[in-house]
Write a structure and sequence with these properties.
With 372 residues, the chain is α/β, with parallel strands linked by helices. It has 14 helices and 13 strands. The strands form two sheets. The protein has a seven-stranded parallel β-sheet, with helices on both faces. A six-stranded parallel β-sheet has the order 10-9-8-11-12-13, with helices on both faces. It is globular. The protein binds ligand GMT.
Length: 372
């Protein structure tokens, strides 16, 4: 669909998470507005940091004892069909397949088959939730009926075809950081010891079990046997309490700070020296890309699409191995040349490969090629 006849209206469906797919969806929405699109973002809450010019439409869900909950998917489909009628929306961008691709399909049935849906696969919508037998068939339907599919990494595209069928055509469009997410005072970092400063490890997390934060805490204990470091763990989620308990049990309280959920983690990244994570799977790892934009080398497990993002800007180790994680951190903190070259590469990769200039034109081509 072309813009010649005025701004093309696009509806964006997403979860309003402070990082991850919610952040990707709202930042891309902001970029589309700058490119002259009319963008409507639908969600249960307005994502923090939503750019001016993106119209937000709250989804109101009604409960009733018979409904076994408040069906978000139906309320979303109904609002989308309304937006088609009121604003002429015909392009839908569904971030995270479940249930967004299905809500788009329902709305399309409602308005006579005129919607074009682009579904972006983010990670657990395929690898955990989507492949659960309880949802598998519905996710497959959503994927089959989307006009176009994109995935945030090659690894996720391959995993999707393996689970849902080789017939699926999936374009790999990596996440990127728009200019307003780049640190003002960015750049490669000097070796922390040069600044006579105790190194600080930073981790951003949703504290879901897939993040295996306990591994990270165990690794911290091992690292601290060798060098004086501290750590900041940013975020909220179900496993935070367990992680706090483990920190206490291991006597790490004075060295670990839980910063809670932050809309903008850049202050913590700015104060850090290394980014560490310990996920069981990670299709991309937006948090580590943000850290790289601050020049932080990355240490974590080699899972999912992580190596596509990190490249040679850090050290990746086998998953679920706190000792290997600790060893990699120590290696970087003991080798000035290695640390500084990883930092330089982290900053350069974030600024080039994952920039708006590199990725946004591909999104624009995709939207313009959707056909009438
Ligand atoms: O899938 C999730 O765990 C949540 C999802 C999200 O909505 O925050 O995270 C996924 O999408 C992010 C944005 O594309 C990626 O950076 C994360 O790596 C990915 N999470 C996993 O694959 C575990």
């Amino acid at each position: 669909m072309k813009k010649e006849d005025g701004a093309v209206p696009v509806a964006v469906l997403c979860y309003p998470t402070p990082g991850g797919s919610g952040r990707v969806a709202s930042d891309l929405a902001g970029c589309l507005v700058e490119e002259g699109y009319e963008v409507h973002l639908l969600g249960v809450r307005k994502p923090g940091g939503l750019r001016p010019g993106v119209a937000f439409h709250p989804i109101t869900m009604r409960g009733d004892p018979l409904l076994q909950g408040r069906p978000y998917d139906l309320a979303l489909a109904a609002r989308l069909a309304e937006l088609h009628e009121q604003r002429g929306v015909r392009i839908v961008h569904a971030h995270y397949a479940l249930p967004h691709a299905l809500s788009a399909l329902l709305a399309d049935l409602c308005v006579g088959g005129t919607l074009r849906t682009v579904t972006t696969l983010h990670g657990t919508d395929i690898t955990l939730v989507g492949s659960d037998p309880a949802y598998h068939r519905m996710v497959r339907l959503g994927l089959d009926r989307s006009t176009r599919l994109t995935a945030v990494s090659r690894s996720l595209a391959e995993e999707t075809r393996r689970i849902f069928g080789e017939h699926l055509e999936i374009e790999v469009l990596p996440n990127f950081l728009p200019p307003w997410r780049f640190p003002v005072r960015g750049g490669p970092r000097p070796f922390p010891w040069k600044r006579t400063k105790q190194p600080v490890l930073v981790h951003l997390s949703t504290f879901r079990s897939v993040k295996r934060v306990r591994d990270l805490v165990l690794a911290l204990k091992l690292i601290r046997r060798e060098v004086e470091i501290s750590a900041v763990l940013v975020g909220e989620g179900p496993d935070r309490r367990g992680a706090e308990e483990l920190v206490s049990t291991l006597g790490l309280n004075p060295f670990v700070r839980f910063a809670g959920a932050l809309e903008d983690p850049s202050k913590e990244l700015e104060g850090g020296d290394l980014y560490v994570f310990s996920s069981r799977t990670e299709s991309f790892g937006l948090g580590l890309l943000e850290a790289m934009s601050h020049g932080l080398p990355v240490v974590g497990p080699k899972v999912g699409g992580v190596s596509e993002v990190v490249g040679d800007a850090g050290i990746l180790v086998p998953p679920a191995r706190p000792m290997a994680l600790a060893g990699a951190v120590l290696k970087l903190l003991r080798d000035c040349g290695l640390y500084e070259s990883c930092s330089r590469r982290a900053f350069d990769r974030a600024r080039t490969l994952f920039s708006r200039e590199r990725v946004l034109p591909r999104w624009l081509d995709l939207f313009e090629g959707l056909g009438e």
